[in-house]
Design brief:
Rossmann fold, about 325 residues, alpha/beta, seven-stranded mixed β-sheet, two-stranded antiparallel sheet, 9 strands
């Protein structure tokens, strides 16, 4: 595929998979959602973003938001949630060049609904009603950039997502391989396809209050996910499905080498199971992407515990208010 056609195809696909600019798409209504979207928008107008407060972001985090009444209070509130405000230019390195997506503009009362939908899709703030993914445009940008990098450098291995929901991110992974003419790598879709497991608080205390079994919308069957791939013309024998709980499927999965692994398991248990099973197969130069690092303390703790136990010192980089990743630099 020619570069210009590839750029147009991938940008359009991201818009469609996230249902960007679709009014009424979000399903998590209420004043809290609107307040979060408003804060994100006001910061974006000042060239600022919210990211997990890891060491690399703390070094450049702002102590107050310039030009925003109560900006110092906002920074302190975010810090309690282990989030930080940093200049958006600090994240340019993870955005694919020339994606052409317009920056959020000023809020106008008459365009409230359109603005809200755009902001939610940009940052992945809610659970969408129809979209194939809830990760948002910025995290899809990150997936694109990391895959493009491993393809350019020839890092060996397949692409894996553990926690696929409706399959949107893995659909995009398969589209990336097609757009770049890669004929060898596989995309692995690992999910229970019946929602998240009930928390095992005795074994994993961090999960005690994370009971997602109450949300039937998180249970998406494997046949529906396959149908979503087929809708975009991307269901073929290079897409492999791993149905079941991570503790039962990932260790014995016939995946030899991994170039990119993306974890979206929410819980401590799901995250640590996926890291234990998959990270030893991640090639040097490959990427580990974590969806819930900023949003869920249990997920963050699992990642931090695993990195400490394995002596992983590669710097964690941030994507948006919850996404984080690092590139493996040594075996």
């Amino acid at each position: 595929m020619e570069p210009a056609a590839r750029r147009a195809y991938l940008d359009l696909l991201k818009q469609v998979l996230t249902r960007a600019f679709v009014l009424g798409e979000g399903s998590s209504g209420g004043r809290r959602r609107r307040l979060v979207a408003l804060v994100m928008q006001l910061l974006a107008e000042r060239g600022l973003v919210v990211v997990p407060a890891v060491p690399s972001t703390r070094r450049r985090a702002l102590r107050r938001v310039p030009g925003l009444l109560g900006g110092a209070i906002l920074v302190r509130l975010l810090d309690r949630k282990r989030l930080a405000v940093v200049p958006g230019s600090d994240l340019d390195r993870i955005a694919p060049p020339g994606n052409g997506r317009p920056r959020p503009g000023p809020l106008r009362p008459r365009s409230w609904d359109r603005w809200l939908a755009r902001t939610e899709r940009e940052f992945g703030l809610d659970w969408p009603e129809h979209a194939e993914t809830m990760v948002g445009l910025r995290r899809l940008d990150n997936v694109e950039r990391c895959i493009a990098d491993v393809l350019e450098r020839g890092v060996p291995g397949d692409l894996v997502e553990a926690g696929a929901w409706r399959g949107g991110t893995t659909i995009f992974m398969r589209a990336m391989l097609a757009a770049h003419g890669d004929r060898d790598r596989r995309v692995w879709v690992a999910d229970s396809f019946q929602g998240l497991p009930a928390p095992n608080a005795e074994a994993f205390p961090a999960d005690a209050r994370l009971d997602y079994t109450r949300y039937p919308e998180l249970a998406v069957g494997v046949e529906r996910v396959k149908a979503n791939f087929a809708r975009y013309g991307l269901l073929d024998d290079r897409v492999r499905f791993l149905p079941g709980w991570f503790r039962d499927t990932l260790r014995t999965a016939p995946i030899e080498r991994i170039a990119l692994m993306r974890l979206d398991g929410d819980l401590y248990e799901s995250t640590i199971d996926a890291l234990d099973a998959l990270y030893p197969r991640l090639a040097v130069g490959g990427y580990c992407l974590i969806d819930d690092y900023g949003a869920l303390a249990a997920c963050r703790q699992a990642v931090d515990d695993f990195r400490a136990s394995q002596g992983i010192s590669e710097e964690i980089q941030t994507v948006d208010w919850t996404g984080a990743f690092w590139r493996r630099e040594r075996a």
